[in-house]
Amino acid sequence: MTDYYKQSLEHLRIVLLENQYDFWANWLSEDIENWEKTKSTEHHLRAYGGMGSFNDVVIGNQDSAGLWQGQVFGMLQSLAYGLASGEVLEDILARNNTTSTQISGWRCQDCGAARINSIDIERFLCVSVLPQIFANYLKNNRLIELLNTNKLISSEDISNRKTAIERLFGQSNIEITSENNWLWTCPKCGSEKVCSYRWEILNNETKIIESDDNLEIKGQK
Questions:
Q1: Where are the domains of the chain?
Q2: Helices (H), 57-208
Q3: What is the pLDDT of residues 122-136, one digit of tens each?
Q4: CB 18 within 8 A of CB 76
């Protein structure tokens, strides 16, 4: 039987060492030793809660690879903590799989021009597909492969899904930009009435609709 708890600790330790979190890597080493000797999870559970705790460790930059790396790390944390607390594996995976179909961008309330940042497409894709990939890799003893995030995001499946989402936005006349800053004025008409706007990506990236909770746009009923 696969020791998922030990596996999660070992993978967390690898990521921590790669990101120069030596203190927490050593903490995880002690967790592994305690588990191997006495099956105790007490030391690992003490890592969570309070300022400066294991919860506060940040992995990954705000770029494409960094988003995926951070998400994988967070799922490993959730897995380790859940199993250490006595949770059932399926319940932990189900909790991680509470994904949203909503993606946010910008829209001008005057002329209706719409824009979305490419990094937000990456973030949406990461949150949407990674839980299922994580569960599949875990159960097939391939979890270590998820630590190579560059290989993961360049895979055919991820690339195709990203292309499909970008095509949906293009067909809806929603501009995709590499800029990642707050949009203060509309680049089309110069209006300052620019607001955050949300869309729903449905049917396996084949349909896009406007969310019901958006602000009113001129000319829309």
A1: 1-98, 100-221
A2: 64-84, 89-96, 118-139, 149-153, 156-171
A3: 999 998 889 999 999
A4: no
